Amino acid sequence: MNTNQHFYRSTALLAALTGLLLLIPLIAMQFTTEVVWTLSDFIFMGGLIFGTGFSYLLITKNRKSWSYRIGLGLALVGPFFVLWINGAVGFIGNEGNPANLMYLGVIAIEIIGALIAWLRTQGMAYVMFATALAQALVPVFALILWPPEVISWGAAGVSGVFVLNTFFVILFATSGLFFRHAIGEQNKAHTTTK
Taking CA 77 as the corner, what is the angle to CA 72 and CA 81, rounded to the nearest 5 degrees? Predict the structure, then answer.
């Protein structure tokens, strides 16, 4: 099977998977009042799921390095969950809390950095380490700008926000490490072809 056939088949599978995943809340809405999705929720989530998967398929279409593929997968999964959490319940307090807007800045750093790096391996390693640093700084700045006395930090409190945030810092840093490993793979392949 050539690359294009594989890509088209993978895209069709992704579309089917997106539809199946969206059936979960649709079916749940028939049995409980706890799940209440609007049409815009389905459109947002469908676009997020399909867009994340399609970006991965498109970027890795001609990439052989598994380290690059894993690094990219983590780089895409991180913003996916950041957007999902922020849209559903929010990191800090609820989804309407203005402090949560800073997380969009983290995603912007990753996207702009990836575009500047042209998705090249070494550049992506730097981008993901910068993204991890930005993610780490968000709750610090939020604590300074919006202390718990000013806005609600939610049921988990300040420590809960820092714990959740640390998960994403590790995720982005791990992505950077996979990209660094991919640099080593490229250098090794380059020296063996000489």
Answer: 160
- Using CA atoms, how far apart are residues 63 and 65, in angstroms rounded to an integer? 6
**Per-residue pLDDT reduced to its tens digit, 20-44:** 999 999 999 999 999 999 999 999 9
CA–CA gap between residue 49 and residue 65 (Å, rounded):
24
The answer to whether the pTM exceeds 0.85 is: yes
Tokens 């989804």, located at residue: 95
Q: Rounded to the nearest 10 degrees, how much is the dihedral formed by the CA atoms of 177, 103, 39, 50? A: -20
3-state secondary structure of 36: coil
Q: Where are the alpha helices (DSSP H) in the chain?
A: 3-31, 39-60, 66-88, 102-116, 121-145, 157-192
